[in-house]
Structures
1.
Amino acid sequence: MRTLILATLGFAAMTGAAPAEAQRSWDWSGGRPGSGAWRLVGPGVPMLIPELRASVRGRAFVMRNFDLNGDRVIGRREAALANRTFIQIAGADRPRFNWDRRDSTYVVAVEEPARGPIAWDRRAMRDYGFRQTPRGATMTLSEQVLFDTDSATLRPGAIARLRPLAAYLRANPGVRVAIDGHTDSRASDAYNKSLSLRRADAVRGAFDDLGVTRARFSVEGFGESQPVASNATPQGMQRNRRVEVTLLGQRADRLAGE
């Protein structure tokens, strides 16, 4: 259980909130100076009104009240509820909403029930095909799943492929991750190393967008130096163009068996 500072009915009445909303309490305490940027990710973020999307206080209000399943990703339904709630509460004061006055004057301490564990898809984790390596549980993402040839820009379907793993990582915050990029032997060593690093970093960036903390990752590009097949055939070169994701210190058999 953790104590939150929630807005009371008294101030809601002063702002002209609709009666149905005035009877609710919302957490206004996030986003003070020094509390971080409160970055929002998820398909609902573009739907948010500017007062919520473009200010630290607004982003904090969204995350602290409308991340309904605790996955740190704002969906469309959550965004729509956040918009509707804020518009009702702010009323005509919406363009110049005074977050500090709401936060510091009309508050009451209440207890928030502890959230349950974040759900993750066990079957999808098995389907990744993790294998045991000296560093931990490793899976391979092929080029054709993630990128066009000679590109470090993720294909549209790549995010969907990574989403179950992101959910697992959000549910297991102690797990650290290594992301390693590899190429075939075409082009120069320097170019291949640069491409492999940019691809590994693009995958890390996708996890960042999916709500997984950036600091949990190490990213490296190995270029053509660690082939898993011969570069003498098109099939072998295709196998060598890959990104490997390792859950450091984790056992592959546990992921396969859950």
2.
Amino acid sequence: MINQAPEYATPTSTRLMEIPDEFCYEVPFGMLFDSLLYVGVAEQKKWYTPPHFHPHFELCYIVKGQGWFYNNSHFYNVKEGDLFLSKIGEVHYGAASGINSFKMYYLGFKLDQMKNLELEYIDIGNNRVVEDRTGTLKLMFDKIIEEIRSVQKQSMRMAQSLLIQLLITVIRNYSSAVEQGKSSSTILHPAIKRTLELLHLEVNSRHNVDDLCAAVHLSRSHLNRLFKTTLGISISDYIRALYIDRAKYYLRETNDSVTEIAERMGFNTIHNFSMFFKNFTKMSPAEFRKFVHSKTNYKDDSKV
């Protein structure tokens, strides 16, 4: 497991963010019994999340496509209609796989004021994927997101009420899966596990596939085949997805100049960085930053 994974902290301000292929609403309420911290929608063909952990629980629901998560030394394949849980303090990461479109709902929550329900979530074992066979969980996610986006009177209270229903339904689904003896995790091939660790340890470095092959003692063709069979994406495409996601983060969350970001990302010139970024996002780095800032708003909690 990766030892240097950062903590993705609980939100400290209310923020609505709508950027290309993603919507996220962070809601750090101060009301009694509040549980919802953030809810979002990611719709990126090459979505990925780097190794990290939370001081809260997180649910991810696959709306479309397929992907995978690596959590607590277990590897999980997920597909449309699957829900995945990560618990407090667990280092995890994942990505979309395959060539089809991908869409995912994600939701962070805490249960400090509902200890009985919190204990049930803590007691969930390593079977972290459950199927939403009836579509009930998706409908609940849809209603929460719709309520937040509508900004009607008491919409946040309604979203909190819907969240409790969702969390209880999720617990019932996990309990049912355990009773039926279903297993959702597999053992990751050691070479793939090591390759992922090397790729994620230092996203900013220019990874060389031949060096990765040497590190895991496999030929290039063997590692490529094993990687794509396991994750549904080639090593080269995966590396590019890591780069694009990290570049977007720096452009969105820092005030560093594009030149500074290009240097940090290992590009020799700002021109090469801009061409690389635009080739995959259809926007230049400067255009992306301008768009993000125009679509990100901080809101007054008392008015929602």
3.
Amino acid sequence: MESFQVREFNDPKRKPSLNSVLAQKERLKAAERIRRGETTDTAEANALANVDLDAVEPQYTPLEEQIMAENKAMSLVGHLGELRKRIIISAIAILVGFCVAYYYVDDLLAIIIAPAGKLYYMRPTEAFFTYMKVALVAGIIAASPIWLYEVWAFVIPALTKQEKQLTNWFLPFAIILFIMGILFSYALVLPVAIQFFIGFATDELQPLFSIGQYIDFVIAFVLPFGLIFELPIVMIIMAKLNLITSAFLRSKRKIFLFLAFVIGGLISPTPDMFSQTMIAMPMIILYEVSLWLVAKVMKK
């Protein structure tokens, strides 16, 4: 009888199943969160304490790669669907704001043209399109809390824990500063600018403002102040992320003074030095305020 002999068989190792691969990826992600200090779950930390983050991830079979590619495509479709929903909500909010603003457009125009007095329109359609433009801009500003929230809600899942904490207090203050910039420009800067330009009138040269051109001037003159007033928020966020310090801001003060007038010249609705200065001065003041906040409050 032939004696029994043990033979070796070259049985290739089976590749892991899709469920095991996905579970391993989740364990690696959770371990990475623990390493970065983004979780306080003690049980999860103890369970994942010995996970080797440098281990090579298992390979996928062709079927598994196909399934994961399909899941990724479905995820992309889901993101596009969410983006579409938030765009629709924002558009509806702006449309509602436009309708409400158009109902009160006469009152809005009375407020806007108060610094200039009596205006005229030179073309038959000029007054109509001016009414529409004022209502649209007012509607966008009135609906800003809604569409800004929709933008924030779409972006927030992709942010880290630190970035989420920044946005929680950043958005309310950003909206408040934007409104303060517009009110500051309308109440203090715009009347001075209008009177400056009217001051060039003589007996032979009288001002005759067109309502369309005047509204364009007001929008182009007022809205940049809303953006300029966001400077402290931008500086504080950069300091919070350790991108700048008060010493860095002091060293770049002269450069910023030059850039303030350059930016004032770029966004000014007219090429005169007066408008550029009126835009540059608030930027310089806000820069000094930001430097003080970074140095004294944040101590950086």
